[in-house]
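Hi X.,

You mentioned you wanted examples for the new student's onboarding notes, showing what a folding record looks like when two proteins sit in one file. Here is a clean example. The first protein comes first, with its sequence line followed by its structure tokens.
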Amino acid sequence: MSRSSLEAAIPRGAQILLDASVVLAYFDGREAISPAATLVIDEFVNSGRNPARISAVTVGETLVRPMKAGQAAVNVVESFLLHFPNLSVTVVDYGVAREAARLRATTGLKTPDSLIIASALDGITSVVVTNDERWAGAMAKAAPGLALCHLDAHVPL
């Protein structure tokens, strides 16, 4: 695949939700999808081409590795999570939790995955960016209005 396939999967101006797999690959830099994650975050999100959100659940998942590595790593990741241009954190409130319960009941996804996808069911987000292969079938079944961009489908760039 190519950069153009990724650009087609994430149309200019589309609000996106980033899964933890994308953010983790961005910080790791050594995963097969790291170049695609870097393109999405550093070019699409940073430039404002695609405003992005992450779930508060993704924040928790993203901070695990830095917490094990030490305060310097935590500071870098927290700075990104709190201050990166065109990126905001979606709170898990009652409505999101209720939608997550529906997704879990309908698809059998685990609670964290259901909470992250439910965070995108706000009528604003149009594309969920992930590398979790379990999400395609679940989203087609329970969240058909959302497009899924699976980064594995777009590497190598």
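Then the second protein repeats the pattern, sequence line and then tokens:
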Amino acid sequence: MDATQSTAPIVVTHAGGLRFASQIRTHQIVTDQSERAGGEDSAPSPLELVSAALGSCVALYVHQFLVSRRLPHGGVRVEVTPRNASGPNRIAELSVRVCVPGELPPSTMEMLERVVRSCPVHNTLSAGASVSVAIGAMTEDHAVCG
């Protein structure tokens, strides 16, 4: 995909209680809030998905790097630990730990760190993304939001 190209919108709808379903292409991801926050804790929270997106992206890039160099890749593990903040409520810091199977030479470890930092989710979080908001009323058949 071209870096400036838009994709189809991800459509989020209410799924009951504090649950929301996000339709992404042919996939659906549900979020909920913890019981402490008034939800049923039946799914991750939206903020937890930010950490999951980063970890999944890093894991993919690490896996591809190791496979392309014919290095051991089974059992790769990525741990993402968020540090939350308030005022406004947000993630203040994400710590990423990559665990690879076996020892790698220092030069390979340096390349691997550059690979980790090149994942698009890391780039998005590091550089920031502008967020625009538009609010409109739905049509009676709920087909269009004007």
